[in-house]
Design brief:
alpha/beta; 8-stranded mixed β-sheet; 5 helices; 11 strands; globular
């Protein structure tokens, strides 16, 4: 029965990617077409104004963002300052670990990140070996939406280079995980030693198309 569910208003979604690298472009476009609203999105960032999760923000489909870096999205800033959007900013490493903990069945852990700042307000603090640590709880979601380079029909996934980023830990932490891949192959066609996410974590998979793979900021240096 669980795999018959679909994404609906008010759900919590984990969305893979870092900046615009490794984001599930096709799935985000589908959410825009569906028009679901009141979403809580857990993602490292909120895309840019006209791409990635920024498309959902434009249409007021996101109620709350749980993120780390959101500096490239002016609409995000406007909605946050106006009070239209709830925001929970989390240190980047803590965000990654909270997602990993959610997929590993670890309800809480201690980290030094954020001690003595607003991040630690209202949270348990303990001292270990002379250093203060803040307790952080796991993150889990109704759905996780991830993007991989290759996958097979059993859900085994391979990511490519830095596009791996947040995708593996988010794939583990979703009640239902949807994977979109650039290449969908048959079981046995992937090298077992190269698989990053085992198929047991993936409930639905499809081959995407038309990837733009936009680059936020291109920096280059002169050749020696």
């Amino acid at each position: 029965m669980r795999q018959q569910r679909g994404i609906s208003d008010g759900m919590t979604l984990m969305v893979g990617g870092f900046g615009l690298c490794g984001i599930p472009e096709n799935s985000i476009a589908a959410l825009v077409r569906m028009g679901v609203k009141g979403l809580t999105c857990i993602s490292n960032n909120a895309g840019v104004d006209d791409f990635g999760l920024g498309l959902l923000l434009q249409r007021k489909q996101i109620k709350k963002m749980i993120s780390s870096y959101v500096g490239e999205n002016e609409e995000f800033e406007r909605q946050m300052l106006s009070g239209e959007l709830e925001v929970d900013l989390i240190p980047q490493g803590t965000l990654a670990e909270r997602c990993r903990a959610g997929g590993s069945g670890i309800p809480a852990f201690f980290t030094p990140a954020g001690y003595g700042t607003e991040v630690a307000q209202g949270k348990e603090v303990r001292e270990f070996h002379g250093k203060m640590y803040v307790m952080e709880e796991w993150l889990r979601s109704d759905f996780s939406i991830v993007k991989a380079w290759k996958g097979d029909t059993l859900g085994n996934l391979i990511y490519r280079h830095t596009a791996r980023n947040f995708n593996p830990m988010m794939a583990m932490a979703g009640g239902i995980t949807i994977a979109e891949v650039e290449q969908l192959v048959q079981p046995g066609e992937l090298d077992p030693d190269q698989i990053h996410t085992p198929g047991i974590f993936v409930h639905r998979i499809f081959q995407g198309s038309g990837y733009e793979k936009r680059i936020e900021q291109r920096t280059t240096r002169k050749r020696d």
